Amino acid sequence: MLNKFSCGLFTSDIKNGDIEYTNDYVCDVLDYSKGSLIGLKLNLLFSKASLIFLESYLYPMLLKEHEMFEIQLTVLNTKHERIPITANVKIQDDKLYWSIFTAINRDKLYQELLDIRDQLEQQAEILELKATTDSLTSLLNRRAAIFESEKLINQAYRTGSSLSFVMVDIDYFKRINDELGHQKGDEVLVDVGKVLHEVFRKTDVIARWGGEEFMIVLYDTPFDDAQALCQRLHQNLNSIITLNKPLTVSIGVAVCNFGSGKSTDLMSVLAEADRMLYKAKNNGRNRTEMTCYIK
Fold this sequence. Notes:
Elements: E1 8-13, E2 19-22, H1 24-30, H2 34-37, H3 48-65, E3 67-76, E4 82-92, E5 95-102, H4 104-132, H5 142-159, E6 162-170, H6 173-180, H7 182-199, E7 205-210, E8 213-219, H8 223-237, E9 241-242, E10 245-246, E11 249-257, H9 266-282, E12 288-292
Parallel strand pairs: 11-12
Antiparallel strand pairs: 1-2, 1-5, 3-4, 4-5, 6-8, 6-11, 7-8, 9-10
Helix pairs in contact: 6-7, 7-8
């Protein structure tokens, strides 16, 4: 009757480790004859990792609890191929009573689930990237920029750092679209995005704010440093030639010192940077206007 069970059943002597009984299931799984298994040392059936587990955990727990369930082990067949199993073990009268179940399908299913999880995580990353990135320039979009900027503000409050809020607008962009076409206008936007990445740091928030307007938040950047970065931006953007002349931009900057203890909010300080941007436009474009923002 024991050979009719769809699981492995065998016993071993706890003192000398000899296998004393086995049913046909164990023989079939391990590719042993019953005669070669009887009297074989139990340790010869297990992988090195499983042997360490048996000696350090399973046997001590059996002496204490007398029975263990759903133990994950690896056995070796006659070809030394690894076979995962789940075992229930009971100790009684100096004997170990084993019931084992092959876990090949379980491990295969588990691996498939891991693969599916990895695929879902990759898809989630792609969706998140699409949700937070401007599809044309690969910069942050407006929604993501607001989220990341508010994180920088909170961090600046904790550290007492300065943040510089920069608004950049391409000069005469409508003329580029009207005279050269919208495709050329898109190419200019892409080129500007690349220059922004060259000039500013990975720790800064760099975003396409809308149309031909860009927004940057410079972390731990006081007035003079922000001014120098904007001048570098003007110079680097001049390398983009359109309408047979170097590309120019107007820039407005509001520098906020969060060490003053005064509270502010993102939209208020961006409104001040935007005011500086229009001042730059009204003063002839291709320039930077700056202010220290105080609420």
